[in-house]
Each structure stands twice: as structure tokens, then as C-alpha cells.
Amino acid sequence: MIQILRKNQRVLVLVVAVLTIVAFIFLYNTTQLDELATIKNPTIYGKSLTPLAIDRQVKNYQLTLALGQFELLQKLGGTSQDQDRALTEFVWNLLVLQHQSRELGVEPTDDQVANRIKQVPIFQAAGQFDPLKYGQFVSEQLAPRGFTERQLEDVIRDSLRLEALSKIVEAPAAISEGEMQATARAFQPVTAGFVKFERTQETDKIQISPEEVASIHQQNQAAFMAEETREARCVVFELPADSKIEGKEKVDALQKLANTASELTDSLAQAGASLDQLAAKAGAKIIKLTAFDRTGNPAQTAASLNSEAIADLAPAAFLVPKVGSTSDVIQSGDAFYIIEVTAVNPTRPLTLDEARPQIEAQLRAQKAQQIFTADATSAANALRAAVAGGKSFAEAAEAQKLKVEEIKNVVAAAESTSPENQAIAGSTLLLKEGEISNLEGAPWGAFVAQLQTRAPVDQMAFGARETQIRESLLRNKRDLLFMEWLRVSREAARITMPPGRQG
After folding, report:
1. What's the average model confidence in pLDDT over 270-282?
2. What range defines the domain where residue 202 resides?
3. Are residues 381 and 431 in the same domain?
């Protein structure tokens, strides 16, 4: 199959394809990838990793994203919001996976790899493998950037390794009837009384000393950073303000604008080309953008440019490699733009004065929460003491000028139950009748609940979701087993990193 795919690729090298969104991510978002490739002298299983070997694993990560192998990414830690950490975790875990696969003799065959390639969604059309799409992907997206079919096959091979090892590692996972019975408690209708503790502390009245602010700033300077911003100017190609054309006439006019903008970008590639002269010749205006971040805030312009257009232009500006460089043509609404970056303001630590408002707000919020939690905990303890002394829940609450509310026959796991009632009913799952729950957080502050009665399981509601629940519990157990296996395997790999890096 692999040879067949390669043969088709040679025939289809001239076919042009539109890049997919996922492929765009891996082809152009490479900042963290470059950072990992600069690691020096790491070791795994007692052997040093060469820069070439690291680069190969980095490309595996890029291609795994493009091929949509999300199970491989998720299980090996490659989906963290911290992209640098996601890449680092994925690379080391992938090396461990590959080593363990060889040790256990569960290496996929070439036939298995070829069959799986045919099942990759981006290579399919109408539910069938499409050699055209495969050929386009290889020739249009891989070859120009130094990727090969071999690396594509390696990613699929890694996915198959993961599946094989997962089956071995996760085989002991099972769900007992006792666990299902415990889960079924969420389908027992409960009646309970509860008391809300409202968070009313006004944070602006909490005093924060200059010494506290300075201490937080000094200890956490890495957390207080000014984001990178860029300044730019953009050439604007748009229809006249009083234009009222519609339909085909408007489409033709927009196409003419797009062609003019494209001609300008082509002219800019010539030596000595001047953006100002070319824009004036094309009859386009130039608008200056003040400093903005990746989302387009807080850019301001001397001329009219709406926030939607700025938000569309900002990401493109951050793809421009350096000051003086220009972007490709960008469309926003019925206008076309070309961005020229005029300044790059790199990320830097915030000064104490710049960070002060943020630090003060955080400290006030923390202190307010501490005060509220202490007061609510004290009140909850007093409620329990009063009930233990013989008072009813209502009498104990009234003594503290608290209002008792009630839920009746609420099923915590029912889809029709409101989030608030789910939280209250859920807090009683481990209680006996008459017991009071721990203090539980809530959007309004916190609450405690007293279980009054628990009815038998709602068999209709539970039966409708029993299979789903069993599968979910089993999946969680399997994930935990795999995570523990991976942790132990990583320890055995003896990964070492230079000072300041973590594996």
C-alpha cells in the first residue's frame, strides 16, 4: 500500500490544493518548535539526543497536528494550553512510547500503516480513500518544507503503537457492580434544605500595603509581563464610501480590488520598491496603526478602520517576520489590506508601577475570599453544633439570621436539573439523612445542605444512561492506568535536561 501511495504521489505532483486549517497551524506556528530544537545535551535511556534527533521529533509533533491524530496528542500530553510545555511533553513521551513498543515487540507492520493511512479523514472523499488528496498533501504541504512521506508514515506508526500499548496497559481496567451502585446514587431523588452564604465583601475597601505589592512583584516577576506588541501601517483597497453596487457588479468590483492589491505585493518584491509610491500609484490610502497585540487591542488609527478589520489584520501582522516586511493580501469584509510592520515591541517584564493595579486587584480578591471563607466556615460550624445539640436545621439557621431554602425530589444527574440544584443535590451524595454537608463553593459564594430524604433510584433516568456511565467510568480507569504506566516508564527512561529545563 505504501508503495502504491508513493506511485500515485509521483503522478499527482502537479495538482494544486488549498491548505487545510489544521495544516496551517503546524506549518506556520513554529516559535515553540524552534525553542525545543535549541535544547543541548539531553539524554534518555542513557543516550544523548542529537539536534537532528530532536528536530525529527519536533517534525513528528507538527505532522501529528496536521494529520489530526488527536488521540496520540492527548495521551502523550501534546494538548496543553501552554504550547511550549505541550511540545516538550509530547516529544519525551513519544520517545518513551517508541522505546517501549520495541521492547514489548508490538511494532506495527507496513500493511497496518498503509491501511491506517487510507482511513485518515483528510485523505478521504465521500468516505473513501482519495489518492488525489494524499498526493496533494505530500506535494503541496510536505515536500516544500522538508517533510517526507516517511515522516507521515512514522506518525501513523506511532498512533498504531499507542493503540497496541494502550490495549496491553489498560486491559486490567474493569467496573464493578459496587461502583455502578455508588454512581447510581446520583439518580436518587433527594429532598434537602440548604443555606446560602452570599459573597458581599467589597474588595475596594480592603487595604493593600506597598510592601505587599512589592513583595509579590519581586517573587513573581515572570508572571507579570507585557505582551509583545507591534506597530504597523496598512494599505487599504476598498470600494468608495458612497458605493451602492450589489450582486455581480459588486463581485466584479471586489475582484478588481483584490487583483490590484495582489499586483502591489508582487511589485514590492522588486529591489528598491517603495510602499508609499506603489500605494499612491494604485490609488490606495495608507493607515497607521498604533501598538497592538495579537488580538488587535488597543490599536488606534488616524483614519477610520473598524475594530473588526483590526482584529483580522493583527494575526497577520504577527506572522510578518521583521520590521519593514509586508504581509500578503488580507481580506476583511469588503476591503483588502496589505500590512507593513513598522515596529516590534518585544515581551518584557512589567515595572512595579505598571504591575501595581493587577497585583492590588489580585491581593484584594484573595483577601476578600479568605475573609468570606472564614466567616462562612464559622457560620457552617455553628449550624452543625446547633443541630448536634438538638435544634432543627431551620432553628439553627434562624438563630444566625440565615434563610433556609429547599429542593424537593431533585435528581442530581438528571439532564433537566438546573446547575444550581445539581450542585446542591450533589453535595448530599455521601450524606445520611439529617447530616449536613461540607461548605461548598458556588457562584454566589458558598452553601451547606442538610439531607432530609433520599428516594430509590430513578430507574428510567438511570437505565437510559447506564451504558454511557459505564463506558465513561471505564474510560477514566483506562486513562488513569495509562498515565501511571507512562509515569513509571518515564522514570525508567532516566531523562536528563540542562539546568533550567524540565522533562
Report:
1. 91
2. 189-206+355-455
3. yes
In a domain, 308, yes or no: yes
Which tops the pLDDT comparison, 81 or 270?
Answer: 270
Half-sphere exposure of 42 (CA within 13 A, CB side): 24
69, burial (CB in 10 Å: exposed 0-12, middle 13-18, buried 19+): buried
503 found inside a domain: no
Last residue in a domain, options 346, 369, 400: 346
Ramachandran bin of 393, using left for φ above 0, alpha for ψ from -120 to 50, beta for the remaining angles = alpha
Cis bond leading into 298, ω under 30°?
yes
Contacts of 188 (CB under 8 A, 6+ apart): 411, 454, 455, 456, 457, 458
- CA 121-123-128 angle, 5° bins: 80
CA atoms within 13 A on the CB side of 185: 14
Bridging pattern class, strands 124-125 and 335-345: unpaired
Residues 392 and 332 in one domain: no
For residue 191, name the pLDDT band (cuts at 50, 70, 90).
very high
Same domain, 330 and 378: no
pLDDT tens digits for range 109-144: 999 999 999 999 999 998 899 999 998 888 877 877
